[in-house]
Amino acid sequence: MFNLHCHTILSDGELVASEVAVRYAAAGYRIIAITDHCDYSNIKPNVAAVLAFTSHWPKNSAIKVLPGVELTHIPPEQFKPLARFARAKGIKIIIGHGETTSEPVIVGTNRAALESDIDILAHPGLITDEDVLLAKKARDIFGTYQQERP
Question: Which of 9, 27, 123, 134 could serve as 100's disulfide partner, Cβ 3.0–4.6 Å?
């Protein structure tokens, strides 16, 4: 099993990264990604924190932990530069927080995220048919980790 959308106390989670990883491993997961919420106010420390954590996670562990971020509630024009920054620093999984029906998100967020270097569009409740087609063209994020699949 995989979960590529995990949060810690660095955003709206309740546990530190090691607690998240150990609990997922105990539940039988093989791969997770730590993807705390980021915008311009916190992307630098969050990226540094998740990279430090994942670089020290034991390579022989029962679970692989990937470094990630979730670009959350940002103006659409910020997706590309923030995704480029995260990717350049070594982030493997980038999630774009979409236009959910339960939170105020700027119109155009889904499209901006999909046109950026993201891997997953999360919470795309107000997605258009055109954006669905754009999302279908996205790369297969598991392709890179094919050998890791159970």
Answer: 123
- The two tokens of residue 6 are 């995990």
Q: What is the pTM of this model?
A: 0.90
Amino acid identity at 3: N
pLDDT digits 0-9 by tens, 68-116: 999 999 999 999 999 999 999 999 999 999 999 899 999 999 999 999 9
Q: CA-CA distance, 99 to 126, in Å (whole number)?
A: 5
Report d(CA 107, CA 97) in Å as an integer: 12
Q: How far apart (Å, rounded) are the C-alpha atoms in residues 35 and 106?
A: 21
Question: Measured between alpha carbons, how far is 43 from 57 in angstroms, rounded to an integer?
Answer: 21
Q: What is the pLDDT of residues 126-138, one digit of tens each?
A: 899 998 888 877 6
For 32, the enclosing helix (H) or strand (E) is: strand 31-38
Strand partners, 65: 32
Query: Which domains can be identified in the chain, with CATH numbers?
Result: 2-140 (3.20.20.140)
Pairing type for strands 31-38 and 120-122 reads: unpaired
Other C-beta atoms closer than 10 Å to the C-beta of 108 total 13
